[in-house]
Every structure is written in C-alpha cells, then in structure tokens.
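Q: Two folds, back to back.
A: First:
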Amino acid sequence: MENIVRSLTEKYFKSENIAAISVLDNRVIVTLQNIPEDKNAAEALKADILQSTAAQKVNIIFSYAKPVSNLNEEPQMWQIRNVKKIFAVASGKGGVGKSTTAVNLALALSSLGKKVAVFDADIYGPSIPTMLGFEGQPAISYDGKNFEPFEALGLQAMSIGSLIDRDTPIIWRGAKACGAIEQLLTEVNWGEIDIMIIDMPPGTGDIQITLSQRLKIDGAIIVSTPQDIALIDAVKGVNMFKKVNIDILGIVENMSYYICPKCGNRDEIFGYAGAKETAEKLGVKFLGEIPLNFAIRADADNGKPIVAAEPQSPYAQAYINIAKKLI
C-alpha cells in the first residue's frame, strides 16, 4: 500500500516534499515538509487514497509551513558541565502525560543507581516544581552568577516555574523563551550527573529545534497515548528529531489500559496497542506501556510521583522496566 500512496502523493506534491509515509493497519499518514499548507491538494490526495486503497482513515500532515534552511547550520553549542548523557522526553501534543513520564523515568533511573537531573523545558506550562514538591520555593544563587539546582527525591532539578508565580502566564516569543532556557540550563551548578532528563514542551516549534541544535542530546523518548489523534502527533515528533539527526530511543505508550480495582477487568479506553504498532511501522523501539491509574496522577499532584511513593507497585515497576531498557 505504501508504494501506491507514494505514487498518488507525487501527483499533487513533489517527491522531495514527502518526508514520510506511514501505513498503520487501516490508517495512512502522509507527512509533507518545506511547503505551505495546501488544503485543496490535501483533500484531493486524501480522496484518491481512500478510493484507491483499503485505507479507512487518511491524515495529511504539513510539518513545516516554509523551508527551514537553518536546520543543518552549525550554531554555537550550549555547554553543560559534568553532564554525561542527555535524554529528551517529548510528545507531539499536550495532555498525553509527558511530564509525568519524564519525572517517573528520572526517579526510576535514580533508583537504578544513576545520578539524575531533570530540566523543565516546558516553559509555557512548567509542572516539574509541583511534581517534585518544590513549588513555591525560590531559586538560590550563592555567587549571583549561577543557580543552585533544587534537590528533590534524590534528583537535581530546575524549572522556570521556580522563578515566576504559578498563576503568571509566560507571554514570550520564541527567541526570549529560548534565551531563558539557555540561562537556566547553562548557569546551574548541576554537579556530577550521569543522565539529564529534559521535559520538552509539546509540539515541534522553536524551543524543540533550538534545544536539538544547541545541545548534544543523546536520544529522544516519545510519549503518546494509543489514541489515533495522539499517534498522528507522535509521528510528527519522531520525524522532527530524525530531521535534526537525534536518535529516537523509543516510544512509550501512556494511559495504555485501565484495570478496574473492583472487578479486575482490563479496558483499553484510548485504543489498543496503537503506540506499539506505530513504533514498529516507524522502525523505532517500543519501550513499554504505562497504565491509566488514579495513583499515578494523585502521587504526581502531591509532589511525590509513584516511583518514589510506591516503588514496589506494578505501576512504578512499569517505569523501572523502561529505565532498564534506556540504561
């Protein structure tokens, strides 16, 4: 089917603008790059694919509205002293549990003997201070030049959320937001760190591209739910990191299933095995499933995520199993 879809796509768009074609059972996702969005051509292509193949769902994604000519330039790299490895935890869209996954994976890596730092790059919606229990505490600088990281549950952490009131919106353009991230990353006394987990903002915008260009990121972890709409955006996230030559460590399926505490029945509320199938189609690793559970949400809201609060629970073990794969 993929060859048929490619042939049909080339009727409407140039071959160099076809970034990726993914066929996931009865769903086709065509990702186009470096061209303005053309809704009429997209609708015509969608109709052709539905008529010519067994596909029941077709999504046409325009990954960039204009050519991104600076992706292959050599910008000045940001230097973070004494940090051996940097993993980015990202998602194509918000609301899939990316920050919860980032924090619990950091705690899981720490429980396996690694010295771990967490950096909150989700500058417009910082949640790490709440999840790690240091919300409302001011950042400290002893020399007036560098911040001291927050120490929470065995982790080192820093977030823009510690420098502003929780109800104050950050209304910054991309350049200013990226400048703040650079300062918070490079002007912190991190100490000796084995692995830094960066909680990325959702999407594929200025901050993601800047971090990918300016940091030596050793790999990206994509978080998605099994839901179709989330998987479409997860594909965008994978393609973005591939575009800037960052390895994809794998995909984590969050809110994968729900087990009723009374009857033990398992429900796939958001769909079944969608992230696993997407990983297979994209040729990246599937790292594991995280169930939908009240305790995961409640523990994070209370400032002690489940890997720290209930380390022997099966939900904490799900994160620890993923951390072992990352190591």
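A: Second:
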Amino acid sequence: MRAGAVATLACAVLIPVARRRLGAPAPVTAAAAAAGPFALAVLLPRTKGRDAALFGLQMWAFTVIHELPYDDPQRLRRRLRVRYPIRADRAIGLGELPNVRLQRALSRSGEVTRLDRMLAVIHWAWFVEPHLALAWILVRHNDGFPRAARQMAAAFDLGCAVYFALPTAPPWWAAQEGVMEDELGLDGDQPRPPVRRVMVEAGERSWGRAWPALYGSLGGNPWAAMPSLHFATSLLAAILLSEAGPLAGAAGWTYAVTLGFALVYLGEHYAIDLVAGAGLIAAVRRGEPLGEPLALRISDAVQRLERVANG
C-alpha cells in the first residue's frame, strides 16, 4: 500500500509536468494531479505539517487542471465567451463599464502612477494571501483548519469547474482584440484600447528586464475569468479570519475590498466577475454543512488506509 501511495504521489507531480511530452490525455492528467493529496494522506500520519502539505497538493492539482483547457488554445477559443460580461457590466455601470470609469478617473494615459504600482502589488499579493490566511488559522486555531481548508478547496474547485464549462475572456483581452470597442460602439481607430492592462504596464516599469520571465512563469489560462477566484478566495479568507479573531478579520476584509477595487481598475476583471465570485462563496458557505458528512466519510476512509499503511 505504501509503495502504491508513493507511486501515486510521484505521478501526481510528474505526469502534469510532462503531460505535453508524454501526450497524456487531459482526464489522465487531471486524475493524476487530483490523487496526490489522497496519496500523501495515506503515507503520513496527521500533523500540522501534513495538513499544510495536503492543501499544497490540492492547490497544485487546481493549478494543473485549470490550465488544461488552454493546452489547446484554438479549441478553447471556439467556446470562448467575450460579450456577455461587457453587457452585464454596462448595466452595472449604468451605461458605462466600471473598468473604463475608474481608469478614466484615476489613471494617466501613457504613464504608470504610484496608485498603479500599489494596486498591482495588491494584485500580485493574492498569490500568497489566501494561503497565508489558512496558515495563520493552522498555527493559531488548528481545530478550525480542516473546515477552513475544505471551504477554500471547494471554492477553487468549483471555480475551476465553471472555467471548464464557461470559458470567459477578461476585459483587457476583449479590449486588445477589439471586441470591446465593437460592443460599445466605439471608433476602432482610437490610439489606445478602451481598457488598459495596467498590471502589465506596472510590471514592466517595476521589474524591467526581469518582468518577461516573471510574467511568463505565472503561466495559467487567460480565459479563466468568470467567476473571479482572486476576489472569491480573498473574500472567503476574510470571512474565515473574522471567525478566528477581530484583528485578523479586519486585515482580511481590508485586503479583500482593496483587491476587488484593484481587479476592476487594473482591467483584470469585470465587476460581474466579482459578483459571481461573491456568489460562489455564498454557495460554498451554504453548501458546506451539506457536504461535510461526505467529506468526513472520505476522511475516515483515508485515515483507515493510513493506519494500515503505517502498521
């Protein structure tokens, strides 16, 4: 059993990394990545370190699986939705996109301001913020960690499922491709697109020659925009931190609200993406009590295997 768990864990890492070279089908890659946390749980008895590693493997699986559709961009492009969030945001913005309103009011054409850099840093910080929140709960409120980690994992996984079912372009992409101008009835001869990707402009100015390597290392799927998991997971982190303590909750809410503003201003997400992200978290929070019995049964089964594997 231990040998099988070790082999499964190795496949969870190696198959996704080498999937293009191996020609591994997407279902095989997804199954291999998703099996990693279970394999580690069988191999090691429960400790705080193992709990953290399990969530790390869960995030590895999410990263791999949410990128899989973009392995074949042309095929994904045929299913891409571009116009519906523009129309939804025009309704939210009373005739004008919130992205356009904010950039017109706060940005300077052709320049990167201090505000641009600050909000770009807020955006980049998301790559660690939800995980730091969980780490804080693990260290300071360990009894609450399993429930918090289940909810965070569910948010990522459900968002990933929507990305597969409804690939949606972000505002910066729609603006660069001219779809936004067409939808808004703008003159296509304008020197700049109606929405800038301020985050990239700030990155180029801040990091110089290192920026292409940093930006390229993020990889990802540019058409995974609806719902905004940036906003959804930071919102969930704020809720979970509030349950752990008022000061931690205040820090979480400050970050989530600032990030939500940054995502729209920077051109990374539409306002409707944030609304959908909040709806996703409401569904996770409401649905968690319903899914908890199944999660506990799976946990019990894995723990029985762990006891067998470790004598």
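Q: And?
A: The chain has a mean pLDDT of 90.
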